[in-house]
Known about the structure:
This protein is α+β, with helices and mostly antiparallel strands.
Amino acid sequence: xxxxxxxxxxxxxxxxxxxxxxxxxxxxxxxxxxxxxxxxxxxxxxxxxxxxxxxxxxxxxxxxxxxxxxxxxxxxxxxxxxxxxxxxxxxxxxxxxxxxxxxxxxxxxxxxxxxxxxxxxxxxxxxxxxxxxxxxxxxxxxxxxxxxxxxxxxxxxxxxxxxxxxxxxxxxxxxxxxxxxxxxxxxxxxxxxxxxxxxxxxxxxxxxxxxxxxxxxxxxxxxxxxxxxxxxxxxxxxxxxxxxxxxxxxxxxxxxxxxxxxxxxxxxxxxxxxxxxxxxxxxxxxxxxxxxxxxxxxxxxxxxxxxxxxxxxxxxxxxxxxxxxxxxxxxxxxxxxxxxxxxxxxxxxxxxxxxxxxxxxxxxxxxxxxxxxxxxxxxxxxxxxxxxxxxxxxxxxxxxxxxxxxxxxxxxxxxxxxxxxxxxxxxxxxxxxxxxxxxxxxxxxxxxxxxxxxxxxxxxxxxxxxxxxxxxxxxxxxxxxxxxxxxxxxxxxxxxxxxxxxxxxxxxxxxxxxxxxxxxxxxxxxxxxxxxxxxxxxxxxxxxxxxxxxxxxxxxxxxxxxxxxxxxxxxxxxxxxxxxxxxxxxxxxxxxxxxxxxxxxxxxxxxxxxxxxxxxxxxxxxxxxxxxxxxxxxxxxxxxxxxxxxxxxxxxxxxxxxxxxxxxxxxxxxxxxxxxxxxxxxxxxxxxxxxxxxxxxxxxxxxxxxxxxxxxxxxx
Length: 716
């Protein structure tokens, strides 16, 4: 049986943003609902603008079925041009990749998106002229190379009224004061200084206007090799050890140049390595972590598992799911990156050693590791504003090439690599392992990953601060207009109303308790006990008394800290990482102290909400974490109402977080991948292992066998 909605009678026009222009359109296009094996769908109009591809049906005109979590910029049936991954045409039931000029036009169009949505459009009932216009228009505007100034970012910035306050407590790191404040916050201003050497970009266009270097580094040194070979400060640990990054010299050079550069580096290293008082560990990430090419290959394989055309494809892959997942190598790359971050944290926290991350440009894997280390070691980076400030500092101002790595201009596939997505995947592992430690939710991370492809924000659409500054002037050949005022992605009110923004905040976040002066002293001592490990590997005998153990610990820390570290550093036992890892995991978690991710075996999981949200077969109706959250929120509401009854005067001071995830009443009806999958249609196949459902004859049996349902998000 084929269910078809009749073609729409009334004219439905696309909702256009400021600066958005309608380029081409086609009527009587049939959009399939790919969730099930039938040909169910709806007729509508397919349009292409300079911002997006959109499908408009009669539902687009009505606001009756508005979802609880609605994006104000990108609708359910909208695909931004930057979000288009690949476009296939179907000719006589055969799929063919569409690029460039087309000689023959397909009867069906399949669009695969970077956020893993899949759209199927049937063009059989559309006029031939309209088919030619819409197909060639979509392929041209989403797949062919373009100039930077042709991005919708510039059209929007020149046409939109910019009344929003984009800062939102997020530190942008575009002023000298921001860097000085960060130095003061982390107590790094004793050994490091913010410099203005690159004002006017006279050192390098790749470096930001302002950055931080060791106090002993002179301006002459910074200028000598355009900033290469200079340790740039990222963050300082509570014990004074610092995390630094450095852009390496090219490897293939003649002997004289190499020797000169080596002598230069030796001089620089002496400014941050002063044994036995201050030690330095160098880590060349290009040799200790997978290459960008390996990361790109792994992610390309991985995402194919989730770009599902129909139910049949899903159940076909289900039989060999684990072997397919393992063969992509994506989860193994996440594990390796997390392991490297733990190693760096060990050096800083346990060995009190400065760590210098080295990479060719220091703008890819350096960004991943330095950000992860700060999320693990600094509880401020686990708040929403702190995490956003971290992304600004390490990625946006730090010079990560978003334009090239996301291939927004379609200029070179060779430069493309999902480096920022890799960071978000790693942070998600921590968020799902330690939910109370984070002020934001996994929904926040998912939305942030989607924002990579929304070209109304400047945050993820430039390669460097220099590139943004030089393109902000707003000058054209004919007229000299005012500078562009770009939006920042951190102003979430642009994409979501307050009710939807509530989904980004974690109602169960364990806020840092405010202590009085006496408590602070005790807390600091306990904090050190919890995080520091004895210098020697030998474990103290259980028979020794508590006070004896305490005095031994103090003697080691007071008398042997500096020199002991220096002696042990040269022949650090090979299992020191494991000892540090196991010792930390054997103690209670301090949600405001150091956090180490669990990285053994099945602890590294698939980010279910991001990758499975468009696949109904992978959803549990009335199950998953959302069901738990709904119950907890019920309890919180009950507690709050009791509090109000007990003391009317203090009702204003009680947190309103209880309502921070609105309308979770009927958790039994919600999908486990809420809020992206709401009350989805039931899949025609139950969410059972393939082997199980193939054996089942009667649909009634499925209801009786609840115990066999599998929560894919949990297993992965």
